[in-house]
């Protein structure tokens, strides 16, 4: 990495750009991004005009298409999140799903580019699916390629994201640098950590909506640090549209208290098909939890935002105080996309739900960049003991991590 220049990264399976956006906030320069979804790449292009975006199937992509956009530069970080539906706990977990093996094409491109560092993000289910086969396969293949690697499950709420989303991160390097992962910055109030960011902190400067309503203007000023970050310099509001509930969903929602789900609805108010869920073999009411028709709490982070956040029957997507699902803009905020992040084309819920939360990506990116710079710092200190050289390096790190 040359002093004064940002380290460059390539983002495979880039989707709408959440991973790239967070890495950019951390100090990386996303030079090339690849995805097969034309709507997602349209969104990516809108928000990353300086990046060469390739709309292509990675299974058939010629690596030279990436190389020609690098301008002879070495890749500092190859990042990506191969599609995870085959081993996601939210999917059918089909062992023959071809998406299970997309990581092989990530590794194929890694062999050709030989980046200094690698970052792979995926669902937690990859750890246990088929007795951990995919985790061990990825780690063993990276080792065979000359990288040492490690993997760890990180929780987004631990890094300032108002959402409990567990994902596995693989980090690998062909340098001699020791691999580690970022320490949590947020928690339940103990150990000197900042408190978790909550749904209320993220959403409650946005206009309240009735079923089917929309709003294109803010009606009040932001009043939390998170809201100020998410609002940025925006003066217009997009995608804040409430999807109308069905009559059945409306009746159920009226009985769900904040922070509770379907099991809190009186038995007599449930449709017949849900009454069976309320009892066990001896006829007693079940006491376990379900997130169906769950109403989010203003005082806690949200549950995982999926592609189905507009359907309250599929999960915990009821607005904390209104009888409606969260809007696409509210979902984007819970993912930590700022309000001026533009989503294009169709399938916007899918683009949002499949993304890496930018503030999570920023935390991981900053940590990797710190590892990179620490290694360079030692080299500079060893080869040149002049204080001004070390000071210049420290200033560069401060600029990159700001």
Key attributes of the depicted protein:
Rossmann fold; 402 residues; alpha/beta; two-stranded parallel sheet; seven-stranded mixed sheet; disordered C terminus; globular; 13 helices
Summarize the structure.
With 402 residues, the chain is an alpha/beta fold.
* Annotated CATH architecture of the domain at 8-188 and 356-400: 3-Layer(aba) Sandwich
Instruction: Tell me the helix content.
Output: 25-40%
Tally the beta strands. 9
- What strand order characterises the main sheet? 3-2-1-4-5-7-6
What is the CA–CA distance across the termini?
A: 18 Å
Mean pLDDT over all positions: 87
- Could you tell me the radius of gyration in angstroms? 22 Å
- Which residue ranges are poorly predicted, with pLDDT under 50 across at least 5 consecutive positions? 86-94, 379-394, 397-402
Number of helices: 13
The CATH homologous superfamily of the domain at 8-188 and 356-400 corresponds to: Vaccinia Virus protein VP39
- Describe the global form: globular
Estimated share of beta-strand residues: 5-15%
The CATH topology of the domain at 8-188 and 356-400, please? Answer: Rossmann fold
The class by helix and strand makeup works out as: alpha/beta
Largest sheet: 7 strands, mixed
CATH class membership of the domain at 8-188 and 356-400? Alpha Beta
Q: N-to-C SSE series?
A: EHEHEHEHEHEEEEHHHHHHHH
